[in-house]
Design brief:
245 residues, mainly beta, Lipocalin, 10-stranded antiparallel barrel, two-stranded antiparallel ribbon, 69% strand, disordered N terminus
Length: 245
C-alpha cells in the first residue's frame, strides 16, 4: 500500500510538471514555399511583378525562436523572433519600374526579399483542464521589411519599419502525458491590409524538460496603401525543439 501511494504521488507530480511549466523555449526551423509574392511600388505608376518568379517558389530555409513565461496559472507573456531573408539573381522578360527606378528586361538582376518579425504577446488562459488549454490575447509586432533590386550599378530598395497590433490565440490538445497538438495564431485585418500567421504542430514529450515536434505553418497578408502594394502567401514545413523549466 505504501508503495502504491508513493507511486501515485510521483505520477501526480509528473502530471503537474508536464502541464504547468513556468518557462518554455522553442526553436523552430525548416523550409518555406511561397505561392504568392506580388509587389508594386509605388502603386499605380510602378510595375506589378511577382517575386515568386524571380526568387523561386522554394525551398527557402527559415528559423524562429520563441520564449514563453507563465506569470501565473492564467497569464502568460511570449517573446518571438522570426527573421526571414531570401536573395536570388534572375532575368525578367519585362522591364520593371520599381520605386521610381527602371530595371531592364533580360538582364541579370538581384532580388532581395526581407521580412523580419519581432513580437511581444500577452495572453490570458481562458480554458484549462487535463486535456485542453486555450489562450487569448494581444501581440505587439515590430515589422522590419525590405524589397531590393540591383542591376549592375543600378539599385533601389524600399525599407519599411513599422508597428502592427495583432490578436493572438493559442490552443493545446493533450492526448496523454507524451503526445499533444499545439496551435497558434496571430492575425489582424483592415481595409489597408491583413496579416495571418497560423501554425499547427504535433509534439512528443521526451521527458519533463524536453519535447520535439513537427508541423505546418502558413503566413499570409500584406498592405495596399498609397506608397506600397505587396501581398505574400508562404507555407512552412517545420520541426521544433522545446525546452521546459
Amino acid at each position: 500500500m505504501r508503495f502504491m501511494l508513493i507511486t501515485a504521488g510521483l505520477l501526480g507530480i509528473s502530471n503537474i510538471s508536464l502541464a504547468d511549466d513556468k518557462w518554455s523555449f522553442t526553436l523552430e526551423g525548416g523550409v518555406i514555399y511561397q505561392t504568392v509574392n506580388v509587389v508594386e511600388i509605388p502603386p499605380g505608376t510602378g510595375t506589378r511583378f511577382s517575386l515568386v518568379d524571380s526568387l523561386g517558389s522554394g525551398p527557402i530555409p527559415y528559423f524562429r525562436a520563441e520564449m514563453n513565461y507563465a506569470i501565473n496559472e492564467r497569464h502568460r507573456i511570449r517573446l518571438l523572433a522570426a527573421p526571414l531573408s531570401v536573395e536570388a539573381t534572375a532575368q525578367t522578360n519585362q522591364s520593371i519600374n520599381y520605386n521610381n527606378v527602371t530595371f531592364s528586361s533580360n538582364t541579370d538582376t538581384t532580388f532581395l526579399y526581407q521580412f523580419n518579425s519581432y513580437r511581444l504577446t500577452y495572453a490570458w488562459r481562458f480554458l484549462s483542464n487535463p486535456r485542453w488549454n486555450g489562450d487569448f490575447g494581444i501581440t505587439f509586432k515590430i515589422r522590419q521589411a525590405d524589397i531590393a533590386l540591383k542591376q549592375g550599378s543600378l539599385e533601389s530598395n524600399f525599407p519599411d519599419l513599422g508597428f502592427v497590433p495583432l490578436l493572438h490565440f493559442a490552443a493545446q490538445w493533450k492526448f496523454d502525458n507524451k503526445w499533444n497538438i499545439q496551435s497558434d495564431l496571430d492575425a489582424i485585418a483592415s481595409q489597408y491590409g491583413r496579416a495571418f500567421d497560423f501554425g499547427l504542430f504535433v509534439h512528443y514529450r521526451i521527458n519533463p524538460n524536453w519535447s520535439v515536434g513537427a508541423g505546418y505553418r502558413t503566413v499570409e497578408g500584406g498592405a495596399d496603401v498609397d506608397i506600397v502594394y505587396n501581398f505574400a502567401w508562404l507555407h512552412y514545413a517545420g520541426l521544433r525543439v522545446k525546452a521546459y523549466y
